[in-house]
Amino acid sequence: MNLNFNVENFIHDFENSCHKAQKKFFAKNEVITTYIQKRDQFCILINGNADLVRYDLNGNRTIVEHFSKNDIFGEVFYTITTNNELLVEAREKCEVLIYTYNDIHMKCRNHCKFHPKLSEYLPELILGKVNALNMRVELLTKRSIRDKLLGYFSLLSTRHLSKTFSLPFSLTDLADYLSIDRSAMMREMKLLKEDGLIEKNGHKITLLYK
Questions:
Q1: CA distance 169 to 178
Q2: For residue 174, which of 74, 51, 31, 46 has the smallest C-alpha distance?
Q3: Closest Cα to residue 65, out of 86, 80, 46?
Q4: Kind of pairing, strands 204-207 and 50-55?
Q5: C-alpha 163 chain-centroid distance
Q6: Which DSSP state fits 62?
Q7: Positive or negative, the Cα torsion across 145, 53, 133, 208?
Q8: What is the dihedral of CA 33, 37, 39, 45, to 10 degrees?
Q9: Residue 180 dihedral angles phi and psi, to the nearest 5°
Q10: Number of H helices, E strands in the chain
Q11: Residue 102 per-residue DSSP state
């Protein structure tokens, strides 16, 4: 997430200035939070990688979002209108700063100096979130598996400023993230290699067409 302020300093000030901000640690595969209960949580991923995962009534799994360092998430960004379970799972050891959204505009009884700064930067944090969601919608609206894969690879290439990058997912998780069948995805990736569009070495992808 690209922001016009130093997010590292922002998180440090947040953690050390406001007594209502809680830092928590989560092990790999541990559930960081669920979106079933309305707790108005506003979370910042300080370190690690995590996924927002949906399980439908039949147990089918979809990765709705992927979170990496400095990304924000929480129930405040989603209106739950179904019985489908939404939860955030740690993909590796994670460090998370958790805050209650309803408290953002409330004056701290300890006269916390951080609240005005949080109110100032919150719109930009949310705008970054909206941009990330828009990119995800654009990926999902692509009609073919090839277009989804190439669109996602192009996005990662731009994000890393390199034609070579590592996938943040296992191949199973990548299929869940792009909402495609894993076997069909593997066939398409083989065709992309044969057509000279990509090179693949483990989880490392190199684009040959940009």
A1: 11
A2: 51
A3: 86
A4: unpaired
A5: 22
A6: E
A7: negative
A8: 20
A9: -135, 160
A10: 5, 11
A11: G
The span from the CA of 118 to the CA of 13, in Å, is 10
Give residue 113's pLDDT.
64
* Residue 145 contacts residue 188 (beta carbons within 8 Å): yes
- DSSP designation for 180: -
* pLDDT (tens digit per residue) in 140-171: 889 899 999 999 999 899 888 999 999 988 89
- Calpha distance 130→93 (Å, rounded): 26
Whether 3 contacts 129, CB under 8 Å = no
Residues in the chain: 210
Dihedral class, residue 23 (left if φ above 0, else alpha if ψ from -120 to 50, else beta): beta
Beta bridge partners of 124: none
The residue whose two tokens read 């000030």 is 13
Q: Does 68 score more than 60 pLDDT?
A: yes
Alpha-carbon span 34 to 67, nearest angstrom: 15
Residue 46's CB is within 10 A of a number of other CB atoms, namely 19
Rounded to whole angstroms, how far apart are CA atoms 197 and 210? 9
Give dist(CA 147, CA 102) in Å, integer. 41
pLDDT digits (tens, 9 = 90+) for 85-117: 788 999 999 999 888 766 555 666 666 666 666
| 93 phi/psi in degrees, rounded to 5 | -60, 130
In a 3-state reduction of DSSP, which class is residue 26? strand
